[in-house]
Amino acid sequence: MSKRVPGNKSNNMDMPRSKTAESIHEVREMEGKKCSSLHPGKFKPVDQKVAVLLGISFPIAFLVFWKVTLPFFASICSLIIGVDVVQTLAFLQEDIMNAMTSPCPNWISAEERAFIRNSSPKQIRRVSNLTFAEFEQIVNAGEPIVVSDGMKDWPGLGSLNCQSFFSKYPDAEYFDWQGQVITPLKDINKRKSYKGLECAAGYIDVRTPTNAKYIQDWVNQVRAPYFLSEDVYTREPFANASHPNMNFFIGTKNTGVSPHLDETCDTFMTAQFSSVKNWSLSWPIKEEGELRWSNPIVFTLYPGELLFWFVGMRHHTEVLEDCSLSFSFQITMPAPRDYFHKLTQNIHSVSETDREKFFKQTYVSNLDFLDSCNIIEKDGQSFITASLEPVT
Ligand SMILES: O=C(O)CCC(=O)C(=O)O
Q1: Where are the alpha helices (DSSP H) in the chain?
Q2: Which numbered atom of ligand 1 lies nearest the CA of 316?
Q3: Is 317 in the pocket of ligand 1 (CB under 6 A)?
Q4: If you average pLDDT over residues 45-63, what whole number do you get?
Q5: In the chain, N or C terminus with fewer CB closer than 10 Å?
Q6: Whole-model pTM?
């Protein structure tokens, strides 16, 4: 006798058709009992319409919760527990949302974004055909400035961009902020967890032993700005051609550098070679007896432009498209005299506790770094510098 196995096709062949259908129905009903606790005894496959309805309504419900319910409760809470707590929660909400929607690590917090959004109505001054006397006057006042024709005679302008830079200097060492690793440029597309140049943002320090062999080549790509009397970034005794005070920044779209302050006395000159970048700059001001950061001026820097900014200035950058390549130089001459005097006066007019609180907003580690800066005269020129020692 052959053994009958339920569900075996050959065993059901000789059954009447309606009986087979009945058995299948029974088996399905059994299966339904096993796996559905919502409707014990009855299994109904989910209706397609219901599935579509659920698929649409869930995101809508989430959106309503995120955009309406949560803000509504936030405003109720602000009345009960105070605006600061609610503001912190709102920043947290924005940080979570950014972390969920961006492929790159969050390089700027919601709180810092809010600081930048609250920008000054003042526009940055853009100049061209500048003379040294005009430049000296602008620097003296510490007014950040863009010189739109600043790189007009620079050999690297038009030919240097991220791709040409990567292929020309394959073993140059690049420090990637997201991964916190040093990578040779030829491997920039092979960074762990990223496809191609995705989220790449970092810098090249020209003075590492591997990079130093390219210094002369890099110096050859640039010129002393036409409105300066001489080459201020390779000028003795504060720098020289083999130790120029320069660094390179590389960044892809939507990456950037969060607001920070460089603890140095020098003036910065940034030269934009490729792509466009948004910048913000702010500086310490005193209002109603309190030290605070001025509302930032926000502007875009385009290829071929030079930007000058000064000691004590808090800044952030964000790449707007493709891949940005820029060089930053630290220069000491001419000195931002009036600006520096006002700055130190403001900083020292408040208590040490207040000064500490103020600088901590921007992660300054050496609270007294400004005390090491001096303005000196040499060969009929004024310099701002932390040291008289030649750079060796
Ligand atoms: O150029 C940039 O993107 C950042 C520059 C910067 O933060 C710096 O030089 O300190």
Answers
A1: 9-12, 17-35, 48-64, 70-81, 83-101, 110-117, 132-141, 162-168, 209-212, 215-220, 337-348, 352-360
A2: 7
A3: yes
A4: 84
A5: N
A6: 0.79
